[in-house]
Structure formats: C-alpha cells, structure tokens
Amino acid sequence: MSTTTIPVRTPSAAYDVHIGTGLLATVGAQVDALLNGALTSGKQRVFVVTSPEIDRLWGTQLDASFPTPPIRLIIPAGEQHKRFSTLERITEELAQHGADRDSVLIAFGGGVIGDLTGFLAAIYMRGIRYVGVPTTLLAQVDSSLGGKTGANLAAGKNLIGAFHHPIAVFSDTATLATLPPAELRAGLQEAIKSGIIHDRALFDFMETNADAILSGDQAALTHVVAASVRVKAEVVSADEKESGLRMILNLGHTLGHAIEATTNYRQLLHGEAIAWGMIAAIAIAARRGTVTPAEAASMDAVIRAYGPLRPFTADAAELVALTAKDKKNRSGTRSFVLPVGIGSAVVVRNVTEAELLEAATAIVAEASAMLQVPA
Amino acid sequence: MSTTTIPVRTPSAAYDVHIGTGLLATVGAQVDALLNGALTSGKQRVFVVTSPEIDRLWGTQLDASFPTPPIRLIIPAGEQHKRFSTLERITEELAQHGADRDSVLIAFGGGVIGDLTGFLAAIYMRGIRYVGVPTTLLAQVDSSLGGKTGANLAAGKNLIGAFHHPIAVFSDTATLATLPPAELRAGLQEAIKSGIIHDRALFDFMETNADAILSGDQAALTHVVAASVRVKAEVVSADEKESGLRMILNLGHTLGHAIEATTNYRQLLHGEAIAWGMIAAIAIAARRGTVTPAEAASMDAVIRAYGPLRPFTADAAELVALTAKDKKNRSGTRSFVLPVGIGSAVVVRNVTEAELLEAATAIVAEASAMLQVPA
User: How far apart are CA B276 and CA B364, in angstroms?
Assistant: First the structure.
C-alpha cells in the first residue's frame, strides 16, 4: 500500500493528511500511536461519529483497526441533520458515555459528518480532539481539512461553526468505490477548482486522464486527491482564518451557494452547484480579461467533461440578490474569486451587480433549457 | 469618574477590563472607538444580548451611549435558558437581522448572559467579536473574563462551550446597586476565593472592610472588583487553556459544583455553593497541613462573614461520586485545589475519596442542621 502524506501547518495547528488505498485498516493503530498508546492502555477513548450507511459499508473494517471497537454515535445521512438538534443529541450522548477532555472523536463519513463532528469536537467541553476519516471525494479533497467546522441554521448554511483542526486525516480512496457516481463527479469539480486556482499540473492531469479518473482508477484518484489536498494545505497554511488568500478556495462558490440556497439544497449536490458557479466566474473573468478566451474554453470544457451539469431553474436576479448575503462579505462589500489564467486566482471586491447578473442569466438560461427535454 | 483598567494578555487575545462607577454611560463611545468609528459611520453593527430585567433597569442608559440604539436580543433570566435552544433562537435572529462577520455582540447582564453571548459570538459565522458589560458581581469578578463561554446540557453544566475572549470588558459597579443582596454576597465569595488563592492583600481588605463592602460602598466594591479581576487576569494570562495554573481558580468548585448538581442548580446561587466547597477544601488543607489551623480559621470566618451560608440537604457519598464527573478531570484522575497559606494555592491529584467524604460529611451535616430551625 502506497500512502502519500501531506503536512498542514497553520499558526494554531499542525497535522498530517494521509492518502492511500486501504488506509482504513490502519486507522486505529495510527490513532493509537498518535495518542502514545492511550487506546491500547485504555487511558483514553475514541468515539466514532458516522452515518448508518457508512457504518454498514465500512464500519467493520474501521472497528477492526482499533484495539477495542470504539463506541458509535450515529447521525442519519443528509444536510437536514446538520443542525443544532443533532449537536444537542450527540453532545448529550457523549456526556452519557462519559466522554471527557481527553476523549477523541472520529469523523467517519462525508462532508456533513465531518463538519458536524469537527464542530462537536470544537464545543464539547470547550474543545476535544478529533480525527478525520473522510469517505466521500468532496470530503477528501476539501472539507476534511482546513479546520472549518459547522452546522446550518434555517436562515442559511454553515452560519454557525468554529475553526477547529483535526489531529490527523486518513483518506482511504478505496471507500470511493461505494460512492454514488454522481457524488464522485460532484467531488471532482472541487478538484478541478483546486487545479484552476492553484495547480496547473493538476488541471492538466484531470484534463488528460478524465476516463481513468471517472472510472474510479485507484492510482488516478489517489493522485487527484493528493494534489487537491496539497493545494488546500498550502492555501490554508498561508491563511488560516480566511483573511485573504484562503478566499480563492471559494472560486465558483458565490453563485454556487446562491444556486444551492434557491433550490433549497435539495436538487443539486454541492459540487454540481459549484460547477455552475465556476462556469459563471470563468465567463466574468474572460470578459474582464484575467483569462484568455482559449483558457476560458479549456476550463469550461473540463468542468463539463466531469459533468453532466445538473439542470435547475432559478431567477437570475434572485441569485444575484442572494450573493449579497454571502457569509464571506464584510461590512457590506461583496467578495468574488476570479481565475487568473489557469493555476492562479484572485479575490476582487469590485464585481458589479451587472456583471453578476449577466453571468447568472447565462447559466440560468442553460440550466433551465436542459429541463426542456426534446420530444 | 475614576476608572481602573486592567489588561488581559493571553497567547490568543489582548483586551482591557475597565472597572468604575458610571461606566455604562461611556460604553457606546468606547466600543465605537475600539472599532475605529465604525458604529458612527454605520459600517459595522452591534447587537445587545440581555435579559428583560437588565434591559428595564439599565437599557436606556446603555442605549444612550451609542450613536444609534443597538438592536436588542432578549434572553429570559435563569440558568434554564443557557441551552442549545436559546443558541439556536438567537443565532437565527442574528441572521435575520443581517449580522455579518464584522458585527459585534454586547453581553449585557450576569453570568448566564455573558456565557451565552460569548458562546454565540464564538460560533456565529465561526466567530465574531463581543464586548462584556457584566452587571452582576459574579460576572464582574469572574465569568466576564478569561474567555470561557458555554451552555449547559441536560447531562451537566457548561458541558458545551468555547474559549473566546471579548475585545473589551466594561464593569460598572453602579449596576451592582440593583443586584439582590443574596447575589451580591454570593459574588463576594468568588472575590474571597481570589484573595485566598492569589492575593493576600485582597483577602485582608475583605476581612477588614466587610461592612462597607456588604453595604454597597462604591469605592470599596470597586477596589474588590478590580483586585479580583487582577487576580484572574494574571492567572489567565499565564495559563489560557487551563493546563495548569488556571485550575487554582477552581478552589471550592469541585464540591461546589457537586452541591449545585445535587440540588439541581435551584436552591443555591453559584457563589453560595462555592462557599461550602471552599469550607470543605480549607478543612482538607488544614488536615494536610498546607494551611495552619489559624489560617484555616481565618479563611473560614471571612467566608461566613459574607454569608449567611445557605442550607441544603444532600448525601455526602453522592457529592463525592459527583466529583468524579468533574469536567476538569482528565483520563479519570480527579483534580482538587488546596489553599497553601492565605494568598496561594496548589492543584493536587491525590486527594482521596476518604478525605473528600470526610469533608463532604462535615458540610452536609452543618448545612442540613441549619434546616432544623429551633422551636
């Protein structure tokens, strides 16, 4: 088994992200080693937070890697469970099981499990440790690292949360084999994003090897995950609290989040919404000249190659209005990420409503036209 | 108006605590100055989190200090509201009012308001700023500084929370005039604690000036609050995350928390429970010889002078069992704070169940005997 290890070093945390095929079977022993044998000696305890489905598919393998099988805390799958009520239930369960400040949580699942478990670890007894074991591509390439944790309000997604880094992340690409194909494709959009904003070689690799990657080739997937993690690790290490550089990770997210909000987070996967958002951002960049028409066409084509893009209906003006509510806005100023060539990006604050509306109108037109299936 | 300013400097925060009579009338202008005039210019917004009672008594005065009256978010008084449900309601209200990452919360009230508001600020959009304006003695001398924020679970008090420091604290001792006498006395127990663990001069001042302090003399109260804040600021600055020294702040809290838990947090005020806990801790210290019999008698007498101690009934063995669940315990080892003479304290991990049981039995006997009112 070959494993790639990528260090994340921020002012407040230092941890390693391990990526490889078959890593799951080693997680328990590696966590025990991180805790200086405290699991074997019984001095400290781990609690696995996971979904029923991941537990069924991969739980036995994870359990077997520990000296004794850890206690499980189950959260049903789905964004609708990423709420205060779940935080309350799980923290009460942790307390009932006697979890203390030395206990460690394992976030075993996709983005919802990862975000919630990180947030649970951030607030339980004012902060305990957690380990990420992401099982979806989106979680492996994006949400499992960087320390952003959180939950949703009725008023919006991820409006509550904390910065709290894991002590280690283990990304087993073998778990991607049980991922629904649409989720794999959606997750790959975030990898494309990583290439566009910070890693031309990753973008080129994904352009050239789309077939292998989309068919689940383990070597190709491991390469994509590792390169994406390296991009995020570099950006997050340079700007932990999102004061500047880190915002480039939000390419496609301004309109992407608006699309998710207007479709009630139900019609599109996160990566599918981000794909539309990137297409719009690329169009604005092309119009402004931060990318050439050829570069824009190339990026646009790769995003579509990892599609198909998912249709939706929305009102373009409403999408633009929703971007005014973006959590990244400060003191009323709207932030927007534009690609600069392929492999670089910039955060600007002067994108106008007119530019946004033009780009939003184009994607809404295309997305809704897809719903008019020809007879 | 004379104001004492005490700096708190920790690895993660630097802020000033201002203590004085009549400070309330200056809060708005001072917060505006801290934000470089962003309130006057309308670039940033403040939200006041408070209770109906404090709002009625002091809200007008606070409002008048701001360029425009801030929006109010009301939390009913009482520990029973320090829960997830309140966090959810207030975060939703913040979102509906358009609070963003530059918005600032004002914690205007006692300990419950302070703990909740700090926690709200810690988790709203992964962290916004807040200012403490504590209006109870307990909050002024203790809970408003140090960065400990949180809420309760059914399973126990303060089991969720975060370390999140205010950007400033304004303690107006004039607000103590509307405090119920029992709350003033209970808060003074935490000041006595500060003297015992770290400031012999404060202890002596409280021993000598009990009458002036208990009658609400502003100069005497300001001296006590400032000295107590200085103790906490020094301890917290030296040990932000409670890995060692900071634990001495918990003198009397091990059994005090157990008493609160066994009486369902309803019969005794926090400071009243801590008073009993300190009496027990002093007895253990006297038996171990870390304090002389004369020192123990002196400390015991001062605690009682700021009483009367509030009666309660409990099972001593159950109190001891509850201390095993203390949040400060790590990997199953019980921590306990013992005074060393007057003005110093130490954290030990070898206090036995027998020692605890003996001390608990003594206070339970005294506390329950007080309920047998003579005919």
Answer: 9
Beta strand pairing call for B156-163 and B148-153: antiparallel
The model's pLDDT over B109-126, given as tens digits with 9 standing for 90+, comes to: 999 999 999 999 999 999
A246 among known catalytic residues? yes
* Residue pLDDT, tens place only, A307-366: 999 999 999 999 999 998 766 666 557 789 999 999 999 999 999 999 999 999 999 999
Rounded Cα distance, B16 and B226, in Å: 12
The answer to whether A100 contacts B327, with C-beta atoms less than 8 Å apart, is yes
Cβ–Cβ gap B123/A127 under 8 Å: no
Q: What is the pTM of this model?
A: 0.90
Distance CA B305, CA B276 (A): 13
Q: Which of B82, B89, B93, B331 should one mutate to test binding to chain A, selecting the residue with the greatest count of A CBs within 10 A? A: B331
Q: Which residue carries 């309330």 as its tokens?
A: B24
**Catalytic machinery residues of B:** 126, 148, 190, 232, 242, 246, 250, 253, 257, 270
Query: Which among A43, A155, A328 has the least Cβ separation from residue B95?
Result: A155
Whether B91 sits inside 8 A of A159 (CB atoms) is yes
Taking the Cβ of residue A154 and every Cβ of chain B, the question of whether any pair is shorter than 8 Å is answered with: yes
State the complex-level ipTM: 0.89
Query: Which residues of chain A make contact with B326, given a CB cutoff of 8 A?
Result: none
Residues of B in contact with A127 (CB under 8 A): 162-163
Token pair recorded at residue A11: 């002012």
Give the span between the Cα atoms of A29 and A67, in whole angstroms: 8
